[in-house]
Amino acid sequence: MSSDVLVVIGVGGMGRAIARRLGAGKTVILADCDESTLHASAAALSDDGYDVHAQTVDVASTESVASLVHAAESRGPVRQLAHTAGLSPSQATTEKVLAVDLLGVALVVDAFGEVVDTSGAGVIVASMAGHMVPPLPAEHAHALATAAPKDLLALPFINAIDDPGWAYGIAKQANLLRVQAASRLWGQHNARINSISPGIISTPMGHSELASPLGEGMRAMVTASPAKRLGTPEDIAAAAAFLLGPEASFITGTDLLVDGGVVAAT
Question: Of the candidates 130, 124, 133, 175, which has an alpha carbon nearest to the alpha carbon of residue 152?
Fold first, then answer.
């Protein structure tokens, strides 16, 4: 009999921590666009006794996401999804940030919402940045929540963005809206989907941001926060374990802010 399938997209610090925390006894599908990082992560988990299968994916490609869904379904019932892949403003252009962080999330949420197993659950990793940009006008918010993925990047107010930092914040706010709307689709399978908005986390991406021109401001936010520290991948894995587990069976379509109190102190 096939074991339950856990799909983890993005195998940086947070993704690997989630796979390690939740993957024991399951079939783990690890997916990433970076083949070297992907196969190194898969080998490390396999050496520790996990049943791991690696799949290269471009989350901004409908065909690539569909291939990932097929690979996951072929291994057993898809019971848990953790989507952690993303690009920060210091890593990519505006166009690439929007393709991965906006379009990519929409494609993954919709595609897995069609196949998730009964009582399954998904978590989308967004960012506290989505809470820090001003709320979008109602018309824009509705479009980001409900437009077909193929139409998202052509929305005039999205097409007009020319700053990667602004693109990142808007994409992450859109992730929250998309998850809220998608909870209805997932609910048709008696499944749940939520998002997590991490703060500044000690991952390769987090350290890249800290080393960028944004780093001074980010360190100031950490110092001013109640927690006064960076988050760890394990902090995010703990939140994901809760939202993907039975204790959260009455929670869907919402966001969990895991930022050490940065937003509250801003």
Answer: 175
Tally of domains within the chain: 1
User: For residue 157, which of 168, 146, 141, 145 has the smallest C-alpha distance?
Assistant: 141
Q: Is the pTM of this model over 0.85?
A: yes
Q: Which residue among 26, 50, 150, 168 is the active-site one?
A: 168
Residue-number span of the structural domain to which 224 is assigned: 5-265
What's 253's domain CATH number? 3.40.50.720
- 50 has catalytic annotation: no
Strands 5-9 and 27-32: parallel
Which amino acid would we find at residue 16? Answer: R
Considering 26, 50, 150, 172, which one is annotated as catalytic?
A: 172
**Over the stretch 191-228, which tens digit does the pLDDT of each residue have?**
999 999 999 998 878 777 888 887 888 899 989 999 99
